[in-house]
Amino acid sequence: MQTRVLTIINEEGLHLRPAQVLANAAGQFAADIYVEVADGQEANAKSVLGIIALGLEKGAEVKLSADGEDEEQAVAKLAELFEQGFGEQ
């Protein structure tokens, strides 16, 4: 299992558009991928509604985890999206 702690940098948080970008990117990997917040709530990163339900605002820290054959590539690619603000920065 690969994990990385990331911070939401988007001014509007993880609203619909960046959540869709994340879910689409996560869907390209075979690994099981989850986004978890500090209080323990987690969502499947391949689910737009699950991601939005976490209510991630700017500055929120999340733990991105992937488990499966391509877990390293998944975490690397998705962490890059977080760090680039999902193309909004």
Write the layout of secondary structure elements.
Blueprint (H helix, E strand, L loop, with lengths): L1 E6 L8 H11 L5 E6 L4 E3 L3 H6 L7 E7 L3 H13 L6
Antiparallel strand pairs: 1-4, 2-3, 2-4
Helix pairs in contact: 1-3
Describe this structure in words.
Helix content is 34%, strand content 25%. It is an alpha+beta fold and 89 residues long. It has a four-stranded antiparallel beta sheet. Helix 1 packs antiparallel against helix 3 (71-83). It is globular and about 35 Å long. The model has no long low-confidence stretch (mean pLDDT 96).
Query: How many strand segments?
Result: 4
Shape summary: globular
Radius of gyration: 11 Å
Topology pattern, helix = H, strand = E: EHEEHEH
How many angstroms separate the termini?
29 Å
CATH names the topology as Histidine-containing Protein, Chain: A
Summed up, the domain count is: 1
Q: Please work out how many helical segments DSSP would assign.
A: 3
CATH superfamily: HPr-like
Low-confidence region ranges: none
Described by strand count, sense and barrel closure, the largest sheet is: 4 strands, antiparallel
- Percent helix range: 25-40%
Strand content: 15-25%
Mean pLDDT: 96
Which strand order does the major sheet show? 1-4-2-3
Give the CATH class.
Alpha Beta
Q: What class would the helix/strand composition place it in?
A: alpha+beta
CATH architecture: 2-Layer Sandwich
Keywords: Cytoplasm, Phosphotransferase system
InterPro entries: HPr, HPr-like, HPr-like_sf, PTS_HPr_Ser_P_site
Subcellular location: Cytoplasm
Protein name: Phosphocarrier protein
